[in-house]
Design goal:
By secondary structure, this protein is α+β, with helices and mostly antiparallel strands. It has eleven helices and 18 strands. A hairpin with a 5-residue loop joins β8 and β9. α1 packs antiparallel against α3. Bound molecules: flavin-adenine dinucleotide (FAD). InterPro entries: FAD-bd_PCMH (IPR016166), FAD-bd_PCMH-like_sf (IPR036318), FAD-bd_PCMH_sub1 (IPR016167), FAD-bd_PCMH_sub2 (IPR016169), FAD-linked_Oxidoreductase (IPR050416), Oxid_FAD_bind_N (IPR006094).
Amino acid sequence: MGNTTSIAARRDCLVSAVGPAHVTFQDALLYQTTAVDPYNLNVPVTPAAVTYPQSAEEIAAVVKCAAEYDYNAQDRSGGHSFSNYGMTLALDEKTAPSRSIWSSFSQFYMDESTFVASIGPGITLGNLDTELYNAGSRAMAHGICPTILTVGGLGPTARQWGLALDHIEEVEVVLANSSIDRHGVQSAHAGGTWSGRSIFIHVQPGDSCAEGEACQGLEGIYSPGDLSWNFYSNLVVFDGQIILEGIFFGSKEEYDELDLEKKFPTSEPGTVLVRTDWLGMIGHGLEETILKVVGDTPTWFYATSLGFTPDTLIPDSAIDGLVDYIHKTNAGTLAWFVALSLEDGAINAVSEDATAYSHRDVLFWFQVFVVNPLGPISQTTYDFINGLYGVLVQALPESAGHGYLGCPACVLV
Ligand SMILES: Cc1cc2nc3c(=O)[nH]c(=O)nc-3n(C[C@H](O)[C@H](O)[C@H](O)COP(=O)(O)OP(=O)(O)OC[C@H]3O[C@@H](n4cnc5c(N)ncnc54)[C@H](O)[C@@H]3O)c2cc1C
C-alpha cells in the first residue's frame, strides 16, 4: 500500500474524476453490500474504491487516475464474472484496484434503416432482448442469463448466428492512455482496449421456433456431422438424472424432417413444444432451471469447463468412467450439474484469428457447476468436481486447460 499522502491524493483524483456522489471508498459503511456487491461469494474481493462514471469523459478521467496513482482498474457491466473479475483482477502487492460500474450506460438506439443498434455496456441481455424486439422484431445471439452482457456470448442462437461477439460492428472505447476512440471490431480486438462506452451491433429478425426435449441417444448430435445449424442442444447431468434438450429454430415441418425423435429410443421420449413468441422462447424451460441453480443472486459457487473438438471427442471408455465416478463419489452436495452444450455451426465459420475468441474449433463445451447457498464450497465438493474434470483429462490429456473464458475455474483467484 502507498503512504497516507499518496492514498489521499488518489482519493482526491477519483473524487474530481466523477464527483463525490459517484465514488465510494473502502471505509464507507456497508461497503461490501452496497458498492462491491460480489457475485461469487466464494471469491472475496475488496476494491480500493468503486466509481460510477456518467460519461466517456469521466471514464477517461478514472483511467487517468488509475495510471497516475498506480491502481489496477477494472470495469463491471452485468457483474456476473465467475471469479468476480468485474471487481478485481490480478492485484499487485502495492495497490488495490478501483472499479467502475457501467450502470449509467444502458442506452439503446436502433437505426431502422440499417438495423444496426447502438447499445451501452450497462444494458442487460434481458432488457436488450425486449428493446430489440420492440424495434422491428429484431434479435441477436447471446448467452442464457438475462442479467449479463459481456464476453463471448454462447447461447441457443449461436449455432445459426454466431457469438454475441460476432454481432459487434464497432465499439467505442476508453484506452489505457485515457483517450476515447472508436474501433471496427477487428482492430478493437487487437488493441487491448480498456472499456467500452457504446457498442454497435447488427441484429437479426426474431423468428418462431420449435423446442424438443428428449433423453438418451446422442449419436449424430455430439459428434461432427451435418446437423442443421438451426438446431441447438444441451445435455444436462444432475444427481441421478440426465436431460437432453434442444431447440429448433424454424417450422414444425422442418423440425420433423430432421427425424430426431427416432434417434432417441427411450421409454420417455420427451415432448415437443412449439413456440411462436420470440421473447417466450428466450426464457424457456431448461435454461430457467439452470438459472435457478446458478442464478442471479450472489452465492457461493465453483465452476469449470473443458472444450472438445472434432479431433478430441470423448471416448466411450471415458463416458463410462464418468458415470462410474458420479455413482461412486460423494459430491458433498446435491446442488451440482454438468452441462454439455453443442456449439459449432456459425460460431466455427468465423476464422480463429478474426476475433479474440480462440475456440472456433470447439464442438461442445463440458461445464460443471456447483452451488452452496449456505456457505463456502467444501473440500469434498472441490475434490468431486476436480475428479470429474480429471476423468476426462486423463482420457484426453490434450484437452487439459482448454476452458471457456466465460466459465473459468474460479477457485484459485
Ligand atoms: C448464471 C450465469 C449464466 C451464464 N450463461 C452464459 C451463457 O449462456 N453463455 C455465455 O457465453 N456465458 C454465460 N455465462 C458466463 C458470462 O458470459 C460471464 O460470466 C460474463 O463475464 C458475465 O458478463 P457480465 O457483464 O455480467 O460480467 P462482469 O463481471 O461485469 O465483467 C466480466 C469481465 O468483463 C470486463 N468488463 C465488464 N465490462 C466491461 C467494459 N465495459 N469494458 C471492458 N471490459 C469490461 C470485467 O472487468 C470482467 O473482467 C453465464 C454466467 C452466469 C453467472
